[in-house]
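User: I'm curious whether this sequence folds into something compact or stays loose and floppy. Could you predict its structure so I can see for myself?
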Amino acid sequence: VNLQALGCTALQSFAAAEAAHCARLAAFGGVGLVLRMMAMLPQAVEAQEHGFALLCALAQHSEDARASVRRGGGVDVGLAALALHLGEAGKAHCGVLAAAAADDGEDC
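Assistant: Here's the prediction. I'll summarize afterward.
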């Protein structure tokens, strides 16, 4: 599970380096891959946290990524993660989960 979190962190760094990278990651199916990983590992808090951080980074810079998150069921994945991890309100990742569940296009 830690491997998935580290992979999301590496991709987030890649996406942050240049806005065009976000569109490329979305075009190559990166959003769907992250959403599938998150759906497969709902109890893995670190994977959820880093997955949503990556999705937020991609969605901030790419309309294609935002559309991929919506089409791929990102809101449902976010709501499911919130339902599972709501009891961990003192943890920093809950802010990421809450921001990712919001579908308002604002920064995560």
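Summary: The helical segments are 2-17, 19-27, 30-40, 45-61, 63-71, 74-85, 93-101. The two ends are 23 Å apart (CA to CA).
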